[in-house]
Amino acid sequence: QVQLVESWGGLAQPGGSLRLSCAASGFMFKNYAMIWVRQAPGKGLEWVSGVSGDESDNTYADSVKGRFTISRDNAKSTVFLEMNSLKPEDTALYFCAKVSVMGWGTLRDYDYWGQGTQVTVSA
Fold first, then answer.
1. pLDDT digits (tens, 9 = 90+) for 63-90
2. How far apart, in Å, are the Cα atoms of 14 and each of 82, 95, 102?
3. Strands 18-25 and 78-83
């Protein structure tokens, strides 16, 4: 049974940092790209970042480029999102998801999702 469990969201001040983690189980983790997606209050899903299975490639939305860093530890089946220089507009529920296709795919290609972890950026 595939499970994705996000953790380490919380409250941060503008300019602050948080490091999210997503623990995976039930599939061959190193064989799949993983992505982070967020949903701000009252808004739709926004794709944030992706990392390939072997960590040789990653990609970021323009809104987070230069501030967020995605990484993974295949030995621990965990993907991370290091978030620095946080802004109030980063406030959202953050989800990790497994990519079921080659490349980064689209939202419809993410076959398993975690329950999300809340990030709130406020003074």
1. 999 999 999 999 999 999 999 999 999 9
2. 15, 21, 36
3. antiparallel
Structure tokens at 52: 């390939």
Are the C-beta atoms of residues 51 and 33 closer than 8 Å to each other? yes
Q: Which residues contact 105 (CB under 8 A, 6 or more apart)?
A: 33, 99
**Cβ proximity of 59 and 4 under 8 Å:** no
Centroid of chain to Cα 13? 20
Residues in the chain: 123
Mean per-residue pLDDT, 91-97: 98
Nearest one of 56, 51, 62, 44 to 96, comparing CA atoms = 51
Residue in 97, 100, 50, 86 with CA at minimum distance from that of residue 71: 50
Give percent of the chain with pLDDT exceeding 90.
95
